[in-house]
Write a structure and sequence with these properties.
The complex is a heterodimer of chains A (about 500) and B (about 220).
Chain A lengths: L8 H10 L1 H22 L5 H17 L1 H14 L3 E5 L2 H15 L4 E3 L3 H5 L2 H6 L6 E2 L2 H8 L16 H11 L8 H18 L2 E4 L3 E3 L4 E6 L3 H7 L3 E7 L3 E2 L5 H13 L6 E5 L13 E7 L10 H4 L9 H5 L1 H6 L10 H12 L16 H5 L6 H17 L5 H21 L2 H14 L4 E2 L2 E2 L4 H6 L1 H7 L12 H11 L1
Parallel strand pairs in A: 1-10, 2-3, 2-4, 4-7, 5-8, 7-10
Antiparallel strand pairs in A: 5-6, 6-9, 11-12
Helix pairs in contact in A: 2-12, 3-12, 16-18
Chain B lengths: L2 H29 L21 H11 L3 E5 L2 H15 L3 E4 L3 H8 L6 E4 L3 H4 L4 E4 L3 E3 L4 E5 L14 E7 L3 E2 L2 H9 L5 E5 L4 E2 L7 E2 L6 E7 L3
Parallel strand pairs in B: 1-12, 2-3, 2-4, 4-7, 5-8, 7-12
Antiparallel strand pairs in B: 5-6, 6-9, 10-11
Helix pairs in contact in B: 3-4
Classes of the chains: A alpha/beta (about 500), B alpha/beta (about 220).
Chain lengths: ~500, ~220
């Protein structure tokens, strides 16, 4: 269904705006999660201090990422886990594949993991005949629909109850219903039979503790617990930025993430897993493999502004707060990670040439910065990326059409700065503009201009497509001042 | 590359990029100098805070829709559980190996079986799971189960109903306190449970019991 990509963001956004069902769902999301978040953070006495503390921990960790990664790997291995390193997504998929093949099994269940979405793990497995079953309800829904997630936390938010019910009728064969409980029970029944026979469980990791080699997975449904306890082998895929230094630090992040993401004090379940069981007849997997993946992350360490991208704990609060995301949803971004955080990490993970429009998918309102639990300054990042894009273009790295456009733009700015830099040309300029605007001002404002005018002055044409343009006052302040002084 | 080559590549890249960042770091830190480096409070408070931990625990758990009762002793706990078994006509019950639970279960009657050490297949057939816990966290109504201290904790996950019996002396006020205690002797797997399994994946409508239990009863034993 959605082969959308970031290069067509403009078109995708316009199409999304026409989808009233989607917009209703997104409005519901923003209001519900926004409201719950506010209530939840009111239960913390020193919320701002908590954010500050979390950010400092993240900064410290990232500045010494190699040391903490080394610690984590050492401690995890001491406890019985096997550590694997993957430079990129392809390697990570390869490692997972080899582990599965070694088990000689195809019965794979998965709990929700954005890292595995990022590397398109499911596709890699399906290509060789292994069908991993997504067990998170939202992920299972989009797996049935053959779509990608449209939100970091609630992947199927773009689908209505009716669409989901129709999907179940078609793919699973139930009777039509609009009862959410029945739909949920259906999913439970089907997925439990998968759990019962699963031999390999694949999960993500929310936090990796360097001090102890512990990985923490949080959830509400219980499918991650099942995925990481029932099968004989557990494979955890983890971005290298998920490391935190101390076990005690978990307190801070567990207070921030659920409140920010879903407005809960705590999600229903947290699993803290440190290595493998100590005796053979204990519960749990016999083997646990942790795949530590770079896939473009270490590059982001090269500048303090981009380094903060790696502080992200994937709570989704920025998506819920963003006025752009609220209107167009996740698919329009055409990237694995949507919303504000997606707009800044996708160009860095995937390369700027294919994702040029994403840093511009923002009015820089700063709502994301307000709600980010680790105080990532996303607007600062967006401006940084925009500067990179423009610099890249100044070095001739773009198409000829864009080259002409950029040349015209820089010429216009040069002319503007010369004209406005001199009092004589400034006065002449404003007088001329005052005269010329007469042809477009109607009823005291400049509304949508004619096609001819739009061709002559594209910036004006673009602006007035959806907005009125400000008019130039009939008399300049300088003249009013002069005239009134004369009267005295 | 193989995993060792990948590891070298990753560490090289980390060190190289951090080095590249150094000149920018200094300037950036000046701008952000307003961030205070003062000492933070040790404890992050969650409101409201009550002096009675059991009450606090109970309140928080009730507020998210689970059941929680405070009783005086094991006998009363057993009575409550018997009521649930009778009312719902439960037949197959998975129990953990906690001593407290064994004692309670020995005094119960059932038209069916209590399964200690249930196999995977049997677990999926059970109607109820009974466990204890090693800690409770009052500020959120959370149960903490350590795999090395209590076996068959899948009894808290697979059956559709979970009953947990916990002595109130095991309840701590904050998550931070519990983490500090857990750290002294880390089990392979520690589970925090706060309420019933839930999801809002369908139109943000709350649905309970997706994968884990739809019903959670916590019975707190407050020995006077």
């Amino acid at each position: 269904m959605n082969q959308l990509n970031a290069e067509n963001f403009d078109q995708n956004a316009r199409a999304a705006l026409k989808d009233t069902t989607l917009r209703g769902a997104l409005r519901n999301l923003a209001e519900t999660f926004g409201g719950r978040r506010k209530t939840a953070i009111a239960s913390i006495e020193n919320w701002e201090e908590l954010r500050e503390k979390a950010r400092l921990i993240k900064d410290e960790t990232l500045l010494h990422l190699d040391k903490y990664l080394e610690n984590f790997a050492e401690n995890a291995e001491k406890a019985g886990a096997k550590i694997h390193w993957a430079w990129d997504g392809k390697e990570a998929c390869q490692i997972v594949l080899e582990l599965i093949n070694a088990k000689n099994s195809t019965r794979v269940v998965k709990s929700k993991s954005m890292a595995t979405e990022e590397i398109h793990l499911n596709r890699a497995l399906e290509n060789v005949g292994i069908e991993p079953v997504e067990t998170d309800l939202g992920e299972w829904i989009i797996q049935l629909a053959e779509e990608t997630p449209s939100h970091i936390v609630v992947p199927a938010i773009h689908k209505t109850k009716k669409q989901i019910a129709d999907l179940f009728v078609e793919k699973v064969g139930i009777e039509p219903t609009d009862d959410v409980d029945i739909l949920t029970k259906t999913a439970r029944k089907i997925l439990r039979s998968k759990f019962a026979e699963a031999e390999i469980g694949i999960s993500g990791v929310n936090f990796g503790v360097a001090e102890t080699g512990t990985i923490l997975i949080l959830e509400n449904e219980g499918n991650a617990r099942l995925t990481t306890s029932l099968p004989k082998m557990h494979i955890a895929v983890m971005g290298i930025e998920k490391i935190i230094p101390k076990f005690a630090d978990l307190d801070i992040f567990l207070k921030l993430l659920p409140r920010s993401g879903t407005g809960q004090k705590l999600t229903t379940y947290q699993s803290l897993i440190t290595g493998t069981k100590q005796n053979a007849d204990g519960e749990g997997p016999e083997e646990i493999h942790i795949v530590l993946m770079d896939n473009g992350r270490s590059k982001m360490l090269a500048h303090p502004v981009t380094r903060q991208s790696l502080a992200c704990i994937r709570c989704g609060a920025c998506l819920n707060a963003c006025p752009v995301y609220q209107q167009i949803g996740g698919h329009a971004y055409g990237s694995v990670y949507p919303g504000p955080i997606g707009a800044v990490i996708t160009p860095q993970l995937v390369g700027i040439s294919k994702t040029k429009q994403l840093p511009y998918a923002s009015s820089l309102c700063g709502a994301c910065r307000e709600v980010c639990p680790v105080k990532i300054d996303i607007p600062e990042l967006l401006l940084h990326l925009r500067a990179e894009i423009t610099d890249g273009e100044a070095n001739g790295k773009k198409s000829e059409v864009e080259a002409k456009g950029k040349f015209a733009e820089s010429l216009a700015f040069k002319a503007y700065s010369i004209a406005w830099g001199n009092i004589g040309t400034y006065k002449l300029g404003t007088k001329t503009a005052r005269f010329m605007q007469k042809s477009v001002v109607k009823n005291g404002k400049i509304g949508k201009v004619s096609n001819l005018m739009a061709k002559i002055a594209p910036p004006l044409g673009n602006w007035t497509e959806f907005r009125d343009a400000p008019t130039i006052a009939k008399k300049s302040f300088r003249d009013i001042w002069k005239d009134d002084l004369k009267k005295e | 590359m193989n995993t060792n080559e990948a590891k070298s590549a990753i560490f090289d890249s980390i060190r190289r990029n951090l080095a590249e960042s150094l000149p920018f770091d200094e300037i950036h830190n000046e701008h952000k100098a307003h961030q205070s480096k003062d000492e933070f409070d040790e404890v992050i408070s969650v409101l409201p805070s009550r002096s009675n931990l059991a009450e606090s625990f109970r309140e928080n758990l009730l507020s998210i829709g689970s059941n929680c009762e405070i009783v005086e002793d094991k006998e009363n706990a057993a009575r409550l559980i018997q009521k649930i078994i009778n009312q719902r006509k439960l037949k197959k019950v998975a129990v953990s190996d906690a001593e407290l639970i064994s004692e309670i279960v020995n005094s119960l009657e059932i038209d069916g079986d209590f399964l200690r050490n249930a196999s995977k297949e049997n677990l999926f057939e059970t109607d109820l799971g009974i466990t204890s816990a090693q800690f409770g966290i009052a500020e959120t109504g959370t149960l903490v189960i350590e795999s090395d201290k209590e076996f068959n904790r899948l009894a808290s996950l697979v059956p559709p109903i979970h009953i947990c019996v916990l002595e109130t002396e095991k309840i701590r006020q904050t998550l931070g306190e519990v983490l500090r205690e857990l750290e002294k002797d880390l089990s392979r797997s520690i589970t925090f449970i706060t309420g019933q399994s839930r999801t809002s994946d369908i139109e943000l409508t709350l649905a309970l019991g997706v994968h884990g239990p739809a019903k959670l009863h916590v019975i707190l034993i407050e020995e006077k």
